[in-house]
Automatic annotation (TrEMBL):
Pathway: Cofactor biosynthesis; (R)-pantothenate biosynthesis; (R)-pantoate from 3-methyl-2-oxobutanoate: step 2/2. The keyword Cell wall biogenesis/degradation does not apply. One of its GO terms (biological process) is pantothenate biosynthetic process. Residues 13-160 form the Ketopantoate reductase N-terminal domain. This is 2-dehydropantoate 2-reductase.
């Protein structure tokens, strides 16, 4: 059974954000000849308008020169909006993109955490999205310059788990652009599994001010990771998501290939940007409270990162 039956093909794409995720995947779409427009901030606008969107990749360097806008009002309609911004940027975008959604645009979410889809659907109160998970090791080296080190995969699917024509069309679009993409009937499980890494290694990297090798080489730190994932498993189960039995050791083992890299939260913190702590550990705390499940590890990680953010702001909450 298909849960949707879109009447038009995905011909026109809007990528919101030209950072480490949106910049890389959007550039691949642009290079393949797809009609892609980027909504970007002023610094990125100036850099990309001047020198193009530059990708320095382990798979080969390239530069594209896509159309750019600084306001959604500059575009009439699109078939697909790829939301490649941080989770905390979502609320401020919803009103802006509402006209495009009303005209039939589908949203593809690529945020970390498990709360973005809930917030979007609560705002629009209609089935308008396909959920996605991005697996990529990359960084925004400078406005308009993406450094890509490893992977570059997107998993996507309907929240319901049922077959989705829209998801299939997006999958085909990504695949045609040379992006490794997978359709899944368990997209929320995939998002929770990624959360096991993001809600442990991300905050620890900020607290320790070090690449994740320090965590992997320390038995006490790995015990914090294990306890954090045990708590995530419990909260996920209470919400009807059964994570794989070996998720703890699988998460740790898979991390060895990234041992010398900094996490995205670390990059954001060091660059003076907000972190996604509210949408990772903060969200877990709130879900745990609602379900009556204690999450002491995440309370500690959350408190420490929030404290460091406060310290960075001169003793005032950011």
């Amino acid at each position: 059974m298909s849960i949707d039956n879109p009447q038009k093909q995905l011909k026109k794409v809007l990528v919101i954000g030209a950072g480490a995720v949106g910049g890389y995947f959007g550039a691949l779409l642009c290079r393949s000849g797809i009609d892609v427009t980027f909504l970007v901030r002023p610094k990125s606008y100036r850099a990309i308008a001047g020198d193009g969107l530059q990708i320095k990749s382990v798979n080969g360097d390239f530069t594209v020169h896509p159309p750019l806008i600084q306001s959604v009002s500059q575009i009439d309609s699109v078939d697909l909006i790829i939301l490649a911004v941080k989770a905390y940027d979502i609320p401020s975008l919803l009103e802006e993109i509402a006209p495009l959604v009303e005209r039939g645009a589908t949203l593809l979410t690529l945020q970390n955490g498990v709360d973005s889809e809930e917030r979007i659907l609560s705002y629009f109160k209609r089935d308008c999205l396909v959920a996605g998970v991005a697996y990529i090791t990359s960084r925004l080296a400078a406005p308009g310059l993406i450094e890509h080190y490893r992977r570059g995969i997107i998993s996507l699917g309907a929240l319901s788990g049922e077959k989705s024509d829209r998801a299939a069309q997006i999958h085909q679009l990504l695949s045609n652009a040379g992006i490794t993409a997978y359709l899944t009937g368990q997209i929320m499980k995939a998002k929770w599994e990624k959360l096991c890494w993001n809600a442990t290694f991300n905050p620890l990297s900020v607290i320790l001010d070090h690449p994740i090798s320090l965590i992997l080489d320390s038995a006490p730190l790995l015990e914090i990771v294990r306890q954090g994932i045990i708590e995530i498993i419990a909260v996920a189960a209470a919400e009807g998501i059964a994570l794989k039995t070996n998720i703890i050791e699988e998460t740790i083992t898979a991390s060895n290939q990234f041992r010398e890299y900094h996490t995205s939260m670390y990059e954001d913190f060091k660059n003076g940007k907000p972190t996604e702590i509210e949408h990772l550990n903060g969200d877990l705390i709130r879900r745990g409270e609602k379900r009556g499940i204690p999450v002491p590890t995440h309370r500690a990680l959350y408190g420490l990162v929030k404290g460091l953010e406060m310290k960075r702001a001169g003793g005032k909450p950011e």
